[in-house]
Design brief:
- It holds the Pfam family Rossmann-like.
- This is NADP oxidoreductase, coenzyme F420-dependent.
- InterPro entries: 6-PGluconate_DH-like_C_sf, DUF2520, NAD(P)-bd_dom_sf, OxRdtase/DH_put_Rossmann_dom, TM1727-like_C_sf.
- This protein has 297 residues and is an alpha/beta fold.
- It has 2 domains: 163 residues, Rossmann fold; 120 residues, Orthogonal Bundle (N-(1-d-carboxylethyl)-l-norvaline Dehydrogenase, domain 2), CATH 1.10.1040.
- It is 52% helix and 12% strand.
- The protein has 12 helices and 8 strands.
- Strands 3-2-1-4-5-6-7-8 form an 8-stranded mixed β-sheet.
- Strand 4, helix 3 and strand 5 form a beta-alpha-beta unit.
- Helix 1 packs parallel to helix 2, helix 1 crosses helix 4 and helix 10 runs parallel beside helix 12.
- It starts with a strand and ends with a helix.
- Bound molecules: NADP nicotinamide-adenine-dinucleotide phosphate (NAP).
- NADP nicotinamide-adenine-dinucleotide phosphate binds next to helix 1 and strand 6.
- The site of NADP nicotinamide-adenine-dinucleotide phosphate has 26 residues, from helix 1 and strand 6.
């Protein structure tokens, strides 16, 4: 028999997780939100509309309490659950934040001594319940908490279609920084490139369109070949004059972009050196060139 689930916070992630676990045969005994109408709609999406409500007490019968509220709500929710779970035998209380450790859920209170706490973080982005439902299968999921809880975390991850892996609590913040770099900074990079590109085009609205194929190929090559082999362009070729031209033009026309370009150029130079595809003397010349513009920016 699969464990009884209460889901608190049926938002983007909660709807996707709830629907997948419901489909996997977990009995959902409560879906708790703040607003009755929104909670009812979310519960319909999950496939358990009769379980919708706004009263946390509905969670007291659950064996697994899934806390899918926003990150800032996790600690207050843990406090609010103290009375609710007081008579629940060994509840496992789970959150899905990439940022926080599982321990954020457990208040420093003897009434929480019988709880188990765990975090499951799917490395995926959820713009809506429906999109999350489709995107989760095939993703990876970090399981963090007591070692003895890993089999349960792994099982739930697999039920969501995700490949589980273990994450140490002390590594959680750096893990999350890495995840944000991969999912957010790529977006920022594309924004920087497309706004600069727009300044050069007769039709600025074409900037994203013309960059899309090269951007997609660069990401695909990076994933398929690895960064060292995927790297192309003037830095790894050691074309110093080309880089000087970029820097001079940016300094003249878009000085506000110079620090961003210089930082990434230096990181790219180091990657080229690591890949042993940039001759050492060229690497030094390039460093001197970048340094000379860094002092201007
Ligand atoms: N979205 C992502 O891409 C993603 C990816 C990985 C992990 N996560 C994690 O998943 C968690 C949820 O994120 P989300 O993007 O799904 O957030 P969300 O769409 O804003 O959903 C949060 C839900 O929690 C409800 N809620 C907030 N406080 C509550 C409370 N005290 N009691 C009951 N319900 C409450 C909200 O209700 P209202 O409708 O009233 O606001 C909403 O339904 C976060 O920990 C986040 O870090 C998200």
């Amino acid at each position: 028999m699969k464990q009884r689930i209460a889901l608190i916070g049926p938002g983007r992630l909660g709807q996707a997780v709830g629907a997948l676990l419901q489909q996997a045969g977990y009995p959902i005994t409560a879906i708790v939100g703040r607003d009755q109408q929104r909670t009812h709609e979310a519960a319909e999406f999950i496939g358990a509309s009769l379980m919708a409500g706004t009263d946390l007490k509905r969670c007291s019968r659950a064996e697994l309490v899934l806390c899918c509220v926003g990150d800032d709500q996790l600690a207050p929710l843990g406090e609010a659950l103290l009375d609710v779970l007081a008579d629940t035998p060994s509840p496992t209380v789970i959150h899905f934040s990439g940022r926080h450790r599982a321990a954020i859920l457990r208040p420093d209170d003897p009434r929480a001594a019988h709880w188990q706490v765990m975090s499951l973080h799917p490395l995926q982005t959820f713009a809506s319940g429906e999109q999350g439902l489709n995107s989760l299968p095939g993703s990876y999921c970090a399981v963090e908490g007591n070692d003895e809880l890993f089999p349960l975390g792994a099982k739930l991850s697999l039920e969501l279609g995700c490949q589980p892996f273990r994450l140490r609590s002390e590594d959680k913040e750096r893990y999350h920084a890495a995840a944000c770099m991969a999912s957010n900074f790529v977006t920022t990079l594309f924004h920087q490139a497309s706004t600069l590109m727009a300044e050069t085009l007769e039709d600025p609205a074409m900037a994203k369109t013309v960059l899309a194929p090269i951007f997609q190929t660069a990401v695909t090559n990076t994933l398929n070949l690895g960064p060292h082999q995927a790297l192309t362009g003037p830095i790894v070729r050691g074309d110093i004059d080309t880089i000087r031209g970029h820097l001079e033009q940016l300094a003249e026309h878009s000085p506000e972009r110079l620090p961003f370009y210089l930082e990434l150029a230096e990181q790219t130079r180091q990657l080229a050196v690591e890949s042993e595809r940039l001759a050492p003397e060229r690497a030094v010349q390039l460093k001197n060139l970048l340094d000379s513009f860094t002092s201007l920016s």
